[in-house]
Design a protein that fits this description.
This is Endoribonuclease YbeY. With 161 residues, the chain is an alpha/beta fold. Helix content is 45%, strand content 20%. Strands 1, 2, 3, 4 and 5 form a 5-stranded mixed β-sheet that branches. The longest helix is centred in the first third of the chain and has 17 residues, at 19-35. The two termini are 24 Å apart. Residues 77-87 have low confidence and may be disordered.
């Protein structure tokens, strides 16, 4: 996968997003797509927001008037750009609250970067059709998340960031 197939839009001003974090975000989404054998032309947009912004989205799209950590919006089908010659594979959008990620990192006792990467892997798996509505789905999704975090050196056991 090509790095410019992951677009990051920092829409918040609460937490500084440096180049290292941006590269880690791209790598997490990229690796998830690669390990799940997604279309190598797939494109994902990542929006980094604050709790107020994600709360609005959560209320509108899920009927829950509270901030959440991550939301995924699958675009589903291929869209044709420029006629039949150029096909763009828009997989979807992932919205992450960096405020919520920081809160959860403190609660779970691991780094902010690990939490952000976990949320991105989780969101990307949702875009690829995985869910956690029942125990079986949850188990499959958690195993995939841990495998990807381990490949990035950020598993629960290894988290060095």
């Amino acid at each position: 996968m090509n790095l410019d197939q992951v677009t990051i839009n920092d829409m918040q001003d609460k937490i500084k997003v440096d180049q290292e974090l941006q590269e880690l975000i791209k790598k997490a989404v990229e690796l998830t797509l690669d390990l799940e054998k997604a279309d190598p032309k797939a494109e994902v947009s990542v929006a980094l927001v604050d709790n107020a912004y994600i709360r609005q989205l959560n209320k509108i799209y899920r009927g829950k008037d509270e901030p959440t950590d991550v939301l995924s919006f699958s675009l589903g089908d291929e869209s044709f750009i420029g006629g039949y010659e150029e096909i763009e594979h828009l997989l979807g959008d992932i919205v992450v609250s960096l405020e919520k990620a920081e809160e959860q990192a403190n609660i779970y006792g691991h780094s902010f970067k690990r939490e952000v990467v976990y949320l991105l892997v989780h969101g990307t798996l949702h875009l690829l059709g995985y869910d956690h509505e029942n125990d079986e789905q949850r188990k499959v999704m958690r195993e995939k998340e841990e495998r990807i975090l381990r490949a990035l050196g950020l598993s629960r056991e290894e988290s060095g960031l």
